[in-house]
Fold these 3 entries.
Entry 1:
Amino acid sequence: MPLPPRHFLGSPHPYPNVSDHEIREAARRLLSGGLIGMPTETVYGLAADATNGLAVAAIYAAKGRPSFNPLICHVEGPEMAATCARLDARALLLMDRFWPGPLSLVLPRSETCPVSELATAGLSSIGLRSPAHPVALDLIRRVGRPLAAPSANRSEELSPTMARHVIEGLGEKAPMVLDGGTCLAGIESTIVSLIGPEPVMLRPGAVERDSIEALIGPLSAPQPSLGVISPGMMRRHYAPRARLRLHATSVAPGEAFLAFGPSPAGIIATLNLSETSRLDEAAANLFSMLRELDSKFEAIAIAPIPNEGLGEGINDRIKRASAHLFEDGV
Ligand code: TXA
Ligand code: MG
């Protein structure tokens, strides 16, 4: 995936839309309990000081989350992570390889973890990641504390990949949004739990399964009976208003066609996730194209997308976005 190279991540950051003054103001607001729309390489987050319970409560209120699901806490790197969680050899290996980057690790919360219990929903574990976005890293560094940040959308709506999506979706609830440009990855981080002896993939995402398994061995699927679950992984999520039809190889009248690669003969793509069948490009385009089609069409037919590499995360998001076709929202 085309993440910025590591040397690209230091200050001064390359986003002309975000001034030094704005980052300082955002850090000041975070330290006094405010919420900030924060760019990351995956999607925009709605950030709060993770150590401030009231600020964290404001995130849940702004998103309209039905229950208190644990939030991912964004850290500068392994050192800050070590103030929150117990890191084993697997965690250190993964952090060294993928951080900063779109891999979230669920780890045992340390006794002295300063993060509010509300951010971790009272669990004895904590989800951590270091975002590969210079604006986010700069902000965390200035605040000097972990930032809790779920995706900056109202609960069940599409995740935002541009600053204007956050403003359109949350309005006054996100009084300040730092415009870090379009998110390069476009789908959320991969979440791996290292709570038990076997690593578990809680959510497929912007880091491919294979590259994680190459380092720490096979990732199992979550087993709710063992208590290894990600409470936020509701089947219905990211729900657009329009009806979605998956694995479509034809188009019905009135439907938009969201293509992947060359369109089947006789079908004109309304939009194409990637004309050259690149999964990284498709991930980056997914939410903004769904958003655009949702504003203009009653129904969207989506071309089949291979379920390998980043396709696993893309298909996961599409399935959740269409879950209301199969059941009432969970
Ligand atoms: O890419 C991302 O991960 C984005 C950006 C903003 O960083 N964030 C994001 O956060 O997607 P959110 O809150 O929408 O999703 C967090 C997921 C939820 O499914 C939650 O249940 C799970 O992480 N999670 C967080 N902490 C956890 C924990 N301690 N145990 C199990 N699952 C956890
Ligand atoms: Mg979300």
Entry 2:
Amino acid sequence: MNAESNIEKQLRESEERLALAVAGTQDGIWDWNLIDNSLYLSPRWKEILGYADAEIPSNFSTFEDNLHPGEKSGVMDNLRKYLNGEIDQYCTQYRMKHRNGSYRWILSRGAGIRDNDGKIYRMAGSHTDITDRKIEEERFRIFAQIVEQSPATVVVTNLDGTIEYANPKFAETTGYSPADARGLNPRILKSGQMDPGGYKKMWDELKQGREWRGEFHNRRKDGTYYWESALIAPVRAADGSVTHYLAIKEDITERKHTEQELRETNLRLIEATKQAKALSDLLARFDPLTGLGNRSQLHEELTQLIEEKGTGILMLANIDRFKTINNALGMERGDELLKQVGDRFRHICGQTDRAARLGADEFAYLVTLNAFESDGNKQQAQLCLRDVHRELTQSYVMNDEEIMLSFSIGGVVISPCEAVTSQDLLRRADTALRKAKADGGNKKTVFEYEMDEAVRERYLIETDLRRGVAARELRLFVQPQFDSAKNVHGFEALVRWNHPERGIIAPAIFIGVAEESDLIIEIGQWVLSEACHFIVRLERAGRPAPVSVNVSPREFRQNDFVERIKKAVSDSGADPTMLVLEVTEGVVIEDVETVIRKMAALVEIGVSFSIDDFGTGYSSLAYLKRLPIAELKIDKTFVQDALRDPNSGAIVETILAMAKHMNLRVVAEGVETQEQAEFLDARAKVIHQGYLFAKPADVDTFFAQGE
Ligand code: C2E
Ligand code: CA
Ligand code: CA
């Protein structure tokens, strides 16, 4: 009894000790009696799972039922192994279900008491809630993984910079394995190409506990260089003291290269742009063919002269009939000729004058006059133009061949007394040039204000004519032509403009204007159609006769000229053999082959051609012979002068002889007197058209008279 109570006492004491020890820890206690399979679970054991002592029974199924389902078999297996003696220690971790449904991580440690046979009959141990530690561990594991797998280099150094940790990316970029790296100082990476002041600044920042951002130019283990950007931050212990430095770095070599390339490309671009600009400035001011200035350079010089209130003369020079010459020579030699003209200009330029090429064969010449010697009057300008004209018309030599060119020059005086712009000057010089050309070319004309008036007048006419044509104000007049027997041979169709305010306007006033624009096409088309209807009317009246229609060079040059004529004929139902087209030598002078082709196409359907104003142009027998023409019209100036002026008489005689030889019909225009008629009749069989016989009249008047 005594001994027993002694044992009991010992037992109680040890239980009390245990209870005290257990109460001091945060562990739960379990005590399993394998003989009757009773299990003691301490209140703390239950509390870990969220239960009060009385809420769950202390038995084995409380333990077993709350085990994580996925771990139950493992736990039981482990327990069995311990009981069997297969393992020496019972220490294991598992999850158990908390009252709130979550699982807690439990560290379970225990030991068994064996009987004499070595069989465990009692086993007791503790339950420690290690959930927080587990979470912490897991967090660390993930964090470590992130660092290990990071695409950025991560390096941790101690306070003097010695590497304590470097992740695999570090090895990849530097060539130093993590093992190599440990214990190294990152200064081994220095390329030596960086400003040492940069490192000092970094250390200053770090020593003061601040983080530092920057870029390193580093060298790998194999000696190659690379750039990296870095963030270095102090790592602090719980008490705030700095224990380590953490560097996160990124290889930016490629970006640096791209940046460098971009910078270089940029520089090259800037340089190229500069060169292009210089070149285009140069080109913008020069004519590449002749090396003279161009329009914009001339404009600049004129503007400067005007601003400086200078005195001078501006000339515009044109090669007469350059198109024809160019066609004859071919483009290449045409260009060569223009080059020579450019040289000629350069030759006469001297120090102060300027020459420019403004268009195909359009040149400008600017003379600056000394204001003390000259006020830039018209007379001086005329002398100047004459000199330049004389120089320009000296012969040119090309392939040992002498070429003569004629020039038309228009000039304008530049005077400080007048407020003008360079445009005004160019326009005036151009007006003078047009006048020189209109006067037959090879002329030099100085601008006068009346010319400006004329230009304005022409403009007003053009505008009014456009309106008048649309308002159907055109009228068709016809003038009969008579044979030597005084019978009506045919008619010439002549257009009039029946102006609402000015009455009947003669074509001399408006045809020239119309010819300078597309209006002539419309007018010509209208006259042609009216003339065709007139032909039809004559036929219906039983008095068929040929009707002549004037065709302007511009009309003739239209690509669809032949089609237009054919259409007018077929639309009206006129007999094409009654249609005569009067063309001037101006039409023929251009491109003989095309002219012949067009004429031939119309001759084929019966239309015939007449050369109008014959004798006034440049006609040469040579090409006249090649044209399919039926008639010549002697210009009225020759007819009227024939009796007074022996020259004109000779011309008329020559034309008559030539026509006879070539078997051409001759119409004499402007026969006003009996003497004129007789002069002609004495020499050949000539058709007469003139006031002596009949003036042009409108179609209806003619029909009324005829009946
Ligand atoms: P042109 O083709 O030489 O026409 C002859 C001009 O001489 C006509 O002047 C006619 O009226 C005029 N005339 C006829 N007999 C005499 C005379 O005895 N004495 C005088 N002093 N003159 C006479 P008009 O009708 O004023 O035409 C002038 C020019 O206008 C024409 O000259 C022609 O070049 C042009 N023209 C007239 N109608 C047309 C047309 O429908 N189309 C085109 N493109 N030009 C036309
Ligand atoms: Ca005519
Ligand atoms: Ca004529």
Entry 3:
Amino acid sequence: MEDTFNKIVALCKRRGFVYPGSEIYGGLANTYDYGPRGVELLRNIKNRWWDHFVTRREDMYGLDTNILMNPKVWEASGHTASFSDVVVDCRNCQFRTRADHLIEDYLDKNNPDEIDFGSYQTKRLSEEKVKTLIKTHKVEGYSEEELDEIINALNIPCTICSGNEGNKWTPTRKFNLLFETHIGIVSEEKSLAYLRGEIAQGMFVNFKNVLDTISPKLPFGLAQSGAAFRNEVTMGKFTFRTLQFNLAEFEYFFNPENMKWEELFEKWKEEMWKWTTDILQLKTENLRWRPHTDEERSHYSTRTEDVEYKFPFGFKELYGLAYRTDFDLKNHREKSGVDLRYTDPQTGNKFIPHVIEPTFGMDRTFLAVLFNSYHEDETNGKKRVVISLPTYLAPYKAAVFPLVANKPEITSKARNVFELLKKNVATVWDDRGNIGKRYFAQDEIGTPNCITVDYQTLEDDTVTVRDRDSMKQERVVIEKLPTFIQNKSSTT
Ligand code: GAP
């Protein structure tokens, strides 16, 4: 599995999906840039999400709010106080890491049958918790003191300098994830601001604007998709955890007096599952729901469940679903002094709606889609790598090749076919190397149809269309090609 991970990371670079950030300057840890193929795949995922959850629904309204907000927003939302990870620093090389990740990775690699707490028998950890820890290798929801105790009892070495003698790690401490920045309002005058740590707050602070301007009726959702920033300390795992990432989420507001949050929660679970399995076509055996424990839940949530995907490095969070109650609107009302209540159009009653929040990491979706569709096969002794992306997600729906590059009649005919198709679907031109190599390259970026203009084309105006997955070829009349490709795209 780890091998597949490395292969996909290499393919992403080789084929222009994802590049390490600021590479010519030695990179910047936990940052990545999307290349020409990656940006198309990512945009297709985002567009499909928007189309599915916003455009096609009557009860959803989109927003596009600012990354920079008044810092009071983050105080009211509780992020300045509670949006943190527990970290430790190596006393030897100053390497900083998340305590939970340090322990879980160590347990995964070493699989201990028992843990000798020896002198650390302060008994913060019950026998039952120790047993569960050995079995699950998970420390979600453990207190800082408990994490300290486990790190010391396991004598975990530093992953960078390997130092493990004595007490190598500093005691655990909280590390806030909000990125600070400064806004120069007047020359030399600076004021603290934050890059948004979640995009949800832009929807809460515009709640009144939306009520006042378009008068939506409950229940309804406010949706947006955009960049979020977190000062993550754990590195690695490619784009799974980055400093800047793409989020898409919506706040679904409802009246708790006439709707049971438990039922709504279940309904959104079903919708999220459908998106993941029917639309993205992720294999169900690689997906599961995992409820958060009381201790690990975010400060704003009464109940949270994650959709986890089985990445090559284990089951990890793909999406989250949280019942945020009236936590955010209530706090913003109190702190801003602005009335954020909704008025029931029938009864005239004023109240703060409650909210259910489905949240979707777009970069993790991108990764899951790639892992889900990557495979290798062999035909006639030749190995190939194929990314069997659903057609609507593929960066290009078709590639057009002239059979030979040195016959002007063939290349000019092929250019005509390319121009014709490009008006209708995302199409790419390729005249490098031989046909076999071109197929190979297109399979690796998931192009479902490869179209070759050959000598027969000059006689009967037909081209070969080679299917990515079956590798079958059929001849299609050029005139019918746009409809043929479009029809295929709409069904898969
Ligand atoms: N508004 C709720 C919220 O932000 P979250 O669980 O903290 O919830 C939402 O984050 C989603 O964003 C996660 O389910 C995950 O897919 C993605 N995500 C979170 N942190 C990330 C990071 N550092 N890099 C990439 N994706 C991340």
